[in-house]
Amino acid sequence: xxxxxxxxxxxxxxxxxxxxxxxxxxxxxxxxxxxxxxxxxxxxxxxxxxxxxxxxxxxxxxxxxxxxxxxxxxxxxxxxxxxxxxxxxxxxxxxxxxxxxxxxxxxxxxxxxxxxxxxxxxxxxxxxxxxxxxxxxxxxxxxxxxxxxxxxxxxxxxxxxxx
Amino acid sequence: xxxxxxxxxxxxxxxxxxxxxxxxxxxxxxxxxxxxxxxxxxxxxxxxxxxxxxxxxxxxxxxxxxxxxxxxxxxxxxxxxxxxxxxxxxxxxxxxxxxxxxxxxxxxxxxxxxxxxxxxxxxxxxxxxxxxxxxxxxxxxxxxxxxxxxxxxxxxxxxxxxxxxxxxxxxxxxxxxxx
Lengths: 163, 179
Prior knowledge:
By secondary structure, chain A is an all-alpha fold. Chain A is built from six helices and no strands.
């Protein structure tokens, strides 16, 4: 429109079409803008690292090169871009796959056992070791044979002679 | 001390044995779906033949939603004829079969449909969103959706004729929801 030929395009139809096009472009941007905000890749990684790659063995969505994991990372990115918190995105997956999708089992209910069992095992082990140590050292706690005065006198004399 | 030992060892063993007994009775492949009884997530896919596959438009019908892939051999190959037979037998009674091809190449997917002569709607899930919405972790997986739009049964591995018939008959036997 800034070209020297601009005054020639005064045809109202052309103006109307251009105006309509400009409106469409502005509208699409206005609609698209609030839906996506910049996403920190570190946030995507952190959520993906907590999710189990469903088609792998012991790999997180962040670490798996599989197509499915790639799609799941894209979903994580998209949801974060839409303004969801990492916890909400994680919940989205849990609602569909169950706690199974989380690599670290939640610290409640039955899976609390997974977190407590090692502690209990260590405590039981410590108790056993303590009991054993007390038993072994207890046995040697026998009183030494009494030394009569004559014997101690003799030991003293022999030590003196040595030095 | 010896009396304590006599009790301590069995007492430690009991919970461990109980846990193992419980664990070994479970089928590790049987992952319970939290989606059972919940409304099926709506989706719109474009089928390979260009038609729209819109789940929301099928409310009031029993929907058999099958996730498959052409590389899923042999289970998906065993299942494809079952789905086709089921579709032909029940299409006039308000049952719709939908196939969602996941993690696949279009060419291979089309060939699979052609090889088995599948006549029900089949479309690719290119973004994986439908798969994740249904908590799919492998193929084949089949979801039976009742006429009210709730997921009622999730079946992992190849579907059999009997399973198809039984589940569909059960869902068809339920009263039609008021619209």
